[in-house]
Design brief:
Number of helices: 10
CATH architecture of the largest domain: Sandwich
Distance between the termini: 56 Å
Radius of gyration: 20 Å
Strand content: 15-25%
Number of domains: 2
Largest sheet: 7 strands, antiparallel
Shape: globular
Helix content: 25-40%
CATH class of the largest domain: Mainly Beta
Order of helices and strands: EEEEEEEEEEHEHHHHHHHHH
Strand order of the largest sheet: 1-2-3-10-5-8-11
Oligomer: single chain
């Protein structure tokens, strides 16, 4: 039996599973945002976005135009500003629910950022109630804007990072993207932000969560410096045990594993820019020994630094 009268249904959407992503460079203000869009289901798509340079405090129009977006920040630090209100900050490993509802919605970032979002048209967003009976009415109302954010941990964080690294270069990768996207969505629907009673009032981060976020930002921005657990613990006012356990739970790695990840990400950006030598880049990201840097880079990306070609 049809689920609704044929006269009320919209025309069917052509859907091709595991199709190669569409690509475009989107000008937003004086920025260029590289976009890859993967169709997942009718009305649902996964979008990868690279913000190529910091906005330096300038608020730019948010490029997501669908009814609802679930955003994950895989690298960098981004701030959302709905309706010209105060900024809502998201660091690497954070996610956000964004529903512009046709109203002005802006963002800014302090450095280059990598993020992805799962976008839904109005009909697809309404279908989320079939997955979870706790979806907030605010997420479904087309006339009300909405913003809420949270920190990922465990499997939710691991899936977010895995999705950010899959480029969809072949059918196998695109199959993985679809499978991981659906698992990621299922885990997100269990988050308190989807609850009608808790989504209306954003949850305040605990003192420990704020301290962990501060520690992560220190490692992200001061990646070229030497760090110790003891010093980082004192700086963010969080004892060493909670600091180490918190990094494992929130980021899925150790404090120094996180630092190494950020160093390698910045090194790759420098190599792709093609403006510095390998030795200069090694020094810039905190390695005094180029061979140690080369070994760490190959472990991270499967390539030697000299094999990375400039992107321009």
């Amino acid at each position: 039996m049809p689920d609704q009268d044929a006269s009320t249904r919209s025309a069917p959407t052509t859907y091709c599973p595991f199709k190669a992503p569409s690509r475009l460079t989107l000008p937003v203000g004086d920025q260029a945002i590289d976009i890859r869009r993967f169709e997942q289901r009718p009305g649902i798509a996964l979008v990868h976005a690279n913000v190529n340079q910091a906005t330096n405090g300038q608020r730019l129009a948010w490029p997501g135009k669908s009814h609802l977006q679930i955003v994950f920040v895989s690298q960098g630090h981004i701030a959302f500003a709905p309706n010209d209100s105060d900024l809502n900050h998201c660091a690497s490993g954070d996610w956000a629910l964004v529903k512009p509802a046709g109203l002005p919605f802006h963002f800014s970032c302090q450095q280059t950022c990598q993020l992805h979002w799962l976008e839904f048209d109005e009909q697809a967003a309404a279908s989320l109630t079939g997955f979870s009976d706790t979806v907030s009415p605010q997420l479904l109302d087309p006339d009300k804007s909405f913003l809420n954010s949270g920190s990922a941990a465990g499997r939710l964080l691991a899936l977010g990072q895995e999705l950010s690294e899959l480029e969809g270069a072949n059918t196998r990768e695109r199959l993985l993207i679809e499978a991981k996207t659906l698992e990621w969505l299922a885990l997100l629907l269990d988050q308190p932000a989807f609850s009608p009673c808790r989504a209306i009032v954003p949850q305040r981060a605990s003192r420990d969560e704020l301290a962990l976020a501060a520690a992560a930002r220190i490692l992200e921005t001061r990646y070229g410096e030497d760090h110790s657990i003891a010093q980082l613990s004192r700086t963010v006012h969080l004892n060493e045990f909670k600091l180490k356990r918190g990094f494992k739970e929130r980021f899925g790695t150790t404090v120094f594993g996180y630092l190494r990840q950020k160093r390698m990400e910045r090194a790759r950006e420098f190599l792709q820019a093609g403006e510095r030598s390998v030795i200069e880049i090694a020094n810039a990201v905190g390695y005094s020994n180029p061979s140690h840097f080369a070994r760490a880079f190959k472990e991270a990306y499967g390539l030697n630094p000299s094999e990375i070609s400039p992107s321009h």
